[in-house]
Every structure is written in C-alpha cells, then in structure tokens.
Amino acid sequence: MKIISWNVNGYRSITGQNPSKRYNVINNDNKLFNYIEKSNPDVVCLQETKANVKQINSNLLYPQAYNGHYFSAERKGYSGVATFAKNDLDARYSSGFGVEKFDNEGRVIITEITTENANFTLINVYFPNGKRDVERLNYKLDFYDSLTNFIEKKRKTQPNILICGDYNTAHHPIDLTNPKQNEKESGFLLIERERLDYLEKLDYIDVFRYFNSEPNQYSWWSNIGNARARNVGWRIDYFWATKDFLDNIKNCYMEQEIMGSDHCPVVIELC
C-alpha cells in the first residue's frame, strides 16, 4: 500500500480549475490528477485545499477510481483538508476531533482503514501556522496539545496510527537550511519543537527520519529568492507513526521533483 501526503496550497489551482498565468501564458493543467495517475497511490491526503465541495467543479472532486472526503474551514478560501482512497479500499472517514475552535478551521480528517494485513487509523492534519502573531502561535500550540491528547486516547484501543500532513514546524537543525537565523521564527521556535520532542517521548516515530538521516531533505520552499531551485528549504511535512505500527512500514520518502505547490509530496509504503 502506498499513501501520499501533500500540501497542495490551493486545490482549485493545482487541478486547473483556477488557471495560473505567467508571462502571459495561461496554464490549466491538472497537476494533481496527473501526478496521482502516474504514482498510483492507494490513499492521498491533501492539506491547505482552500475550498469546500460546493466550490469545486464536479469532474474535479475526485480522481478516477477514487472516492473521498473533504473537510473545509468555515472561512472561505482558507485551510482545509481532503483525503482520497481507491474505491476498492475499505476506508471510513470522519471530520475533526471534537474541539470546536479547531474544527471550525477544517484541519483534520480521520480515516479508518482495514486491509488484509492490518487495520489502522490514518490522521490527515494541517497544523496551524504561528507566524502571524502571539495569539496564533498560542492557537498552534494549543492545537498540538489537544490533538496529541485526542490521539493518545484513541491509541488505547487502536495501537496502529499514522499521522500525516503539514506540521508547520521543522524539528531539528538538519530539517531546515538556516537553523541559526530562524531560531526566533515561528516554525522553528524551541517551544514548537518541544511538541515534536513530546511525540517522541510518547513513542511516536518520525518515519522519514527512521529511513533517511541525510541533510538537505526539505518539503517546503519559499516562493521568494529562487529558494526551491537553490534547495533553501524546510522539512515541515511528516508521517509520524505509533511504534506498534512501525513493522508495517517499509519505506518513506519525499518527491522533491514534483511541482504544483510550494510543498512536495511525502510518500509512505506499507508492507
């Protein structure tokens, strides 16, 4: 089984519903569906969709041979997540995790998946960005704490859990190009990184780092200063897994060459 997580930074843009224009050339390619067709994943988790189902053309709601679930923010054009699964996969979806101030922003889809080899819970998350001001930073930290508490309660009856998405935090200095310069910036603040330290203490595993300890591995690049071409980036998109589920995972990697967003897809392969 292959699962992909990708912050698409606008679903209508990446599918070509809202064409992009550069140097007077209009581009309405469906980069998302083209990528899914070539990659052939069993499950796709998307973040920052910025749309609800009523805003999406019916032919663009799901790739061929997939079904899915959207969870949108109350505020239009903001946040949002979506999860797609192949039609023959036993997948059951639910929205949010029961905290109104977070669920109002459409940040979490929970999918219960049953296969021949295992049953597990896949949690697709778009974590808040804390850069705007202190209030949003505190909101982000509260979100981390509330979601972790929710998952820990779930873990008592379901030991097999995967948590994927845009965490909006680089964990260690290896996970961004300029750690020293960003120590006082949200996304690399010690208080944010400690939330990921806490996940480790609870025996959750950063799956990419379990398989890959190399530097210069990033999943997001600024649109300023030709950052992506120079690979000046941050690794803020993750799969974390409960330790009990680790034996079911055979690989995790990033597809940095895939374009269409300021993030790249992160892929996990299960046994």
Describe this structure in words.
The chain is built from 6 helices and 16 strands. The mean pLDDT is 96. By secondary structure, it is of the alpha+beta class. The longest helix is centred in the middle third of the chain and has 22 residues, at 134-155. Helix content is 21%, strand content 30%.
Brief synopsis:
The chain has 271 residues and is of the alpha+beta class.
Q: Which class in CATH terms? A: Alpha Beta
What does the radius of gyration come to?
18 Å
CATH superfamily annotation:
Endonuclease/exonuclease/phosphatase
Taking pLDDT < 50 over at least 5 consecutive residues as the criterion, the unreliable ranges are none
Number of domains: 1
Helix content: 10-25%
* Beta-strand percent range: 25-35%
Average pLDDT score? 96
Shape: globular
CATH architecture: 4-Layer Sandwich
Task: State the main characteristics.
271 residues; alpha+beta; Deoxyribonuclease I, Chain A; six-stranded mixed β-sheet; 6 helices
Write the layout of secondary structure elements.
Elements: E1 2-7, H1 11-14, E2 20-22, E3 25-27, H2 31-39, E4 43-47, E5 66-71, E6 81-86, E7 90-95, H3 100-103, E8 108-114, E9 119-126, H4 134-155, E10 161-166, H5 190-201, E11 204-206, H6 207-211, E12 220-221, E13 233-234, E14 237-242, E15 249-254, E16 266-270
Parallel strand pairs: 1-4, 9-10
Antiparallel strand pairs: 1-16, 2-3, 4-6, 5-6, 7-8, 8-9, 10-14, 11-14, 12-13, 15-16
